[in-house]
Every structure is written in structure tokens, then in C-alpha cells.
TrEMBL record, chains A, B:
This is Esterase. The keyword Signal applies. InterPro entries: AB_hydrolase_fold (IPR029058), Carboxylesterase_BioH (IPR050228). Gene3D superfamilies: alpha/beta hydrolase (3.40.50.1820). Keywords: Signal. It comes from Methylocella silvestris (strain DSM 15510 / CIP 108128 / LMG 27833 / NCIMB 13906 / BL2). The lineage of its organism: Bacteria, Pseudomonadati, Pseudomonadota, Alphaproteobacteria, Hyphomicrobiales. Residues 1-28 form the signal peptide.
Amino acid sequence: MTQKTLALKIGAAALLASALALTTSAQAANNNIGGPLILKDQGSFFVGGDTEFSDAISGQTSGPGGFGYSNSDYIKVNQMYVQFQVPMKSARNIPIVLLHGCCLTAKTWEDTPDGRMGWAEYFLRNNHAVYLPDQSSRARSGFDATTINEVKLGQKPATALPNVFLFGRVSAWDLFRFGPAYPTPFADEQFPVESLSDFGNQVIPDLNATLPTPNPTYQNMANLAILAGGAVLVGHSESGFFPEQAALVNSSAVKGVISIEGVCSPLNGAQIKTLAKIPTLIMFGDHLTGSPISASLWSSALQGCQTFVQQLKAAGGKATLVQLPQIGLHGNSHMLMQDRNNLEIADYVLDWIDKNVKQNHGRALVGKNRNASDN
Amino acid sequence: MTQKTLALKIGAAALLASALALTTSAQAANNNIGGPLILKDQGSFFVGGDTEFSDAISGQTSGPGGFGYSNSDYIKVNQMYVQFQVPMKSARNIPIVLLHGCCLTAKTWEDTPDGRMGWAEYFLRNNHAVYLPDQSSRARSGFDATTINEVKLGQKPATALPNVFLFGRVSAWDLFRFGPAYPTPFADEQFPVESLSDFGNQVIPDLNATLPTPNPTYQNMANLAILAGGAVLVGHSESGFFPEQAALVNSSAVKGVISIEGVCSPLNGAQIKTLAKIPTLIMFGDHLTGSPISASLWSSALQGCQTFVQQLKAAGGKATLVQLPQIGLHGNSHMLMQDRNNLEIADYVLDWIDKNVKQNHGRALVGKNRNASDN
């Protein structure tokens, strides 16, 4: 348990002492990757966003805030919030876009639930610019609440409400393969299950059911790759196949796709031909059939992705499907970017990018400190 | 208009050329504050979070994802997500916590809608550690969707739905004092109104109506101040008085409070006595009565805060209320941290902190790179 997780479980009086006592172990664990971080640039911006005229921007007829405003107004929807950081020595390395999965946010890629370094900072420290979006309709990207308000106002039936959902502690234990049944972990489980409560803080309602079809995140990811001057797109779980979907919208700046623990949708010949031009890495963890309820889901996901990789190869593509046990990494969960060996897996990803993706990318178009010296 | 705002309004073909053409002006504007940023530490974590047993974690009886899970499970609610950055030379300076207002997120304090530097990075570059929370129930902090799902499932009436709301383009123009009436700006308006569409992307639904009373963000902010080793708490608009509310929960680590464009609630004598021990800055912009619908709201907010400051002073407190025109800054909107002269206002804030807040604070308890050298 880390100082972060523990500290707020206890009262304010005990807080100082306990947190101080726990500082040492966190230090020791990160000595090899700590130290100053030198950034050439950082910031945040939005990609996309459509103007919509909503007739229910609040759930009360007196309008938002009750301040006497009309309850009809123009709002923005479908936008995608992105944070980015550019390390000093990144000029030769391709930017990496890290997109989170269901019921999660960009937090997925930041510090782990037990306070270790996540992939975002690790890729930065390995000299890649990193872009961290929240999916359209999630977290800082906002969502369209019009239907919820229309139902509250009696303009639509309750059945019109979007299906808002997340995974609770017990269902996540199964689906994310922390163990065979809550609260028992697998003997070799790599997820820091002692920090399950802190992980629960990351799990927030999924509002993708409020989005139009196709999901605007596809287009937004394709445009983000252009703004980054070319990028490797990484998706996870719900968004595992979003990099491929983005490339099918516009592949011009998608220099590599990495699909982690996702579902590879069936595609037609023309789509396979387009994607075969982009180096592709598909990754799964361990224990795919070890959790009773999700066993068939994960088997089927693996099979679908095996078929996809075969199709890409038949079309002349560079495609790899790796199950981590095949490369000697055992016990990895669905949240492998937060597992205890998360940086070993990150090393595999970095090595795959080095060997498969053209590195001297274009010039990023977003950012404000372009005058900083380029290394 | 910046490359960020403009770039995604146009098609992919025109995107490269336009964005490149616009890079120059953004560079020029930031020459004085650009250059490498050296961090001792950065990361993200959660403060608080309660475990709740929800009987409707999705809006379908087949449970979340339709994967065969129970629709009842343990979820986390009331947690507060926080990002932080610690610059190398911060040891002598008090950390600053920046909390956003209604329908907004921590994005408030990052790059402005027209792509200039926000207060978060500016305070960092002035050697203060900066903590950026999303309010509990907003953005990456998640929210409790149980009631929405119960209504969808027919277990509760539509009237039980929370009042979810935001401010649209026309109402924001009035409330945020961009001008006397949409789309006309004040002659001396400082908000970058040409970037209104990009600002609209920041405005997301407010779900505070889903929270228990008292708002858990108060306790979370007080605990965050402890974890930061003492901090100045800054609130804005809806959260303008949250720093004071946090100090009333636990003032032990609240070393200064700054309330920007908020409503100062009436307090009793004991509460005033507690807050009088903490240096307090209240700030308002310009044109408080210039927008017809919000004129009475802002007059009343100003009056309430004038009373509050008088009460603090009568109790021996160090308290200042500043209307920006009084110090020669004119045309500032409700979103003054994003206005064209936002860094001039930031300088005033930094100067106020220097002169009023004890600077040699305690040692922060969160963060992972504590072994980095301390300057």
C-alpha cells in the first residue's frame, strides 16, 4: 500500500505520521526512474467539437443555475480533451497517443493505483512526446446531457435515458482478471490488488451511449495524429480497436497502431488493405480463461484478433499478436499498464516501436513553446 | 485565433497548411515565458472516495456491459482526482491548489482557449508546486450514476433525476461577462472572445446535484492541503468559497485562501474567528453590472464578500478584496484566469502570496520522486 492510497483512509490526526512512514518504500521503488524531468513543452487542448442547439441544457424550466436564462442554448458536444507533454530529446522519436478504455480516463496511463510510475511518464522519460486524451463523452471531454434533462422535464420517457454504466468491485475482479473470484487473486497476479480501493476511484460512469454513430472519438483520434505530426495510436479494452477505427477514417498520420486487450472487429478487404500499411501490435495479458464469467469474452476477443492479424499478414502487413506469457511475462491482468511489471511491458512496446515504426516523424502542430531548443 | 482552435474546424487537407501558418504568432506571444520546464516530480492521485453498494450500476437488468454480471455491486463515489507538478526550485514556496468552477474542469487553469499559458504553468514557472483537482462528481473524479439508472429501470420517477446543467453560448456570454449581449463584447473586453467556440469545449455538465451534503469536495480539499504539506487554496465561481469551506472542515494545512468571482456565504462568529487566522484574498473582475441578466447576481456577490472581508478584519484577520479596475486592470471577465492579461493578474496573486502567506511550508506527502535534489 502506498502513501497515496493509505493516507486518506485514516483520520487527519494520524495522516501525517502514517504518510511520512510510508514515503521511504515509494522512494526506493523509483530510484531507477526518478530524478528531474525536463520538458520542452506541455499543455492541453481540444480536438473536434460540434455546436448543437439543445432545448434542455438543464433539468429545470427556469434554465441553468436558475438565473433567468433560457433553457435552450447552443452547446458543444463530441469534443475530445487532450493533455500533452514533449520531453527535450524527442525530435527523433514518434509521438505516442494513449487512449483509455471503458469507465476509465487518461488516469489509466498515469501513476498506478499503488503509486508507481505509469506508461505516460515512462514513455516521456524514454524521449517520446505523449498525448493523453479523455474519450469524447468521458471526463474532461464532457458529454451531452440533453436527453437526461428532457426526461427530467417530462419531454421524453425514462426508457430514452442513455445506458450509463461502470464496473463495480466484484464484476471488475472477474472482467479485469484480478483472480478467479473476488476477493481471491491468482497466485501469480501482477495487478496490485491491495490497491483495489484506489483503483475503484478511477472507475467512472461510461456515457458513450450518448454519442452519435460513428463514435466521434475515431475522427478526433485521426485528427490528433495529424496535429502531433504523426503518431502511434494506442487503445485499451473498449478503445482497443479505436486506433484501427481512426486509421480507417484517415490513416495519413497514423504511423503505428497498438491494440491492448481489445476486440478486433471483422473488417472487409478494402479496410484490411488500408490497415496492412500500418505496423500493428496486438497485446493480451495472462489468465484469459481464468475468470469464470469473462472467460468466453476473452477467448473470443483473442480469436478475433488472431484472425485480424492473419488477414493483415496475408495483405502484406507487419502485424504481431503477443500474449505476454509467450514472452516470459506471467500473471498480467487486463490492466497490464498498471501491473507490477508494467514498465517491463512498456519496454517491450518501446522496442516494438523502435523496430517497426518509422521514427523521424513530422513536426507537431500543437504546443506553445516551439522556440525551445530541439535535441 | 490559435492553431489549436482553428485547426480542427477545417478539413484534414487544409489542416497542415493552416496550422503551420498560425504557429508563428503563438510563438511570438510566448517567447518571454517559454523554454524548458524542469520538474522535480509530477503525477496524479485521488483524495477521498467512499465505498457505496449500488443496486443499479447500469441501466439494464443484464448488468454492466451485458456480460452477465450482477447489476448490484460496490462502487466508489465522492472521490477527487488531483494532478500535481513540482518544479525544481519550489522548496521555499507554498504549494497552490487551483479548483475550477461550475461546468468546468481543471482545464480552467491550463492553456487558455486561444492557446496562451494558463495560471497552472505560470505558477510552476514561478517555483510553486501546483495541484489541479477536478471537483468530486466532475470529469476524472467521476460521479454516482445510480439514480439515473434507477430511473431508466423504472425504479424511481423521472423527477428523481439530478439537475444536470451547463451554461450555453448565449447564457455564458452574459453570466461570464464577455459583453452586454451575445455576440457583442465590451469595448475593453479582455476575454479572447474570438475563441468562444474553443471555450465552449471546456464547458461540461455539472453533476454536483448527485453529491451528498455537505459537498465532499470541502473535506477532500482540506485533506489535499495536508498532503501538499500546507497550501494556498484557490477557488473560482461555483467553488469560489470552497477554500473557506475546506478550512472550516480542517484549517490545519490551509495557509491562505483566494476566492475568485465567487459567492461569500454568511457565516457565524465562530466560523469567522477560524477563518480570520488565514490570509484571505477575494478577487473580482470588471463590468460587474454590465451584463443585464447577471448584473444583480454579481452586485450581490460583491456585497456579500465585502461584508465577509469586514467581518474577517473585525476579527483581526488579514483580508483583501480587490476589484481589478481598482488596481488599473480593466475589461476583465468572470474567466479572468483566461483573459488576455491573465498573467498580469497572476503576478498580482503571486505578489499577494509573497507578502501575506508564510512560505516555508511543510514537506509534501504525495509524489514519487522525492529523491530528486531539493533546491
